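hi! just following up on the protien thing from before. the input was this:
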Amino acid sequence: MILKYDLFLTDLDNTLYDFAAAMEGASQAVVTLIGRGDPGDLIRGLIFSPYGVESDQALVEYLNLQGLNDEQVLKSACDEFVKIKNQNVIPFPGVVTGLLEIHNAGILIAAVTNASVHHAEERLNLIGVRDLFQLVISPECIGRKKPDTEVYRLAAEMMVCPPHRICVLGDNLVNDIAPAQRLGMYGVHARYGDRLPAEFAGGVVADAVVDHFEDVIPILGVSGQKR
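and the predicted 3d structure came back as:
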């Protein structure tokens, strides 16, 4: 077996699991709990909050706009949001077995994410694959976020791997694929996790497109064990 790449560098949210669905489920649970509001409005409020999409402050800000200020109610809503979000962090089909196959083939696995290191580690543990990752690069590591190319440069340096021997998988063409390609990495678009309209692609064209996670395995040069 001749491997085409030495390092598989993957995004996490909406690439290994449907994080959008997890956020939708958590938002619906909070709206149901407080008996008011709209889950779509809550999600939009979190996305555009200066506090960050997963911060308690962002959720509390929305709850305040709904006229809720009681500390116990706010705490209950925040706890419910986290509980339901984590319950809905479920790997896409083939992710766990696929990552294990990649690992067993001798390819190193690392992650580049815009989530905090706490949330990244938490979600990798929730889907049961943390032990397969040699490295997780989050904004705390470098003080920058994707699509900054320095994030990918750091990953290559820390893993001691030349860019042309790195395959990158991600659902977001602008954040995940474009910066990796600029450094000479091979960019694979996880179309199965991309919910953004086509106009948000920014003209970026991936080197390859996959509609299932397992489709990346032959791209890596891992030969056909039955999956």
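The beta strands are 7-10, 108-112, 135-137, 166-170, 186-190, 208-210.
The chain has ten helices and six strands.
cheers
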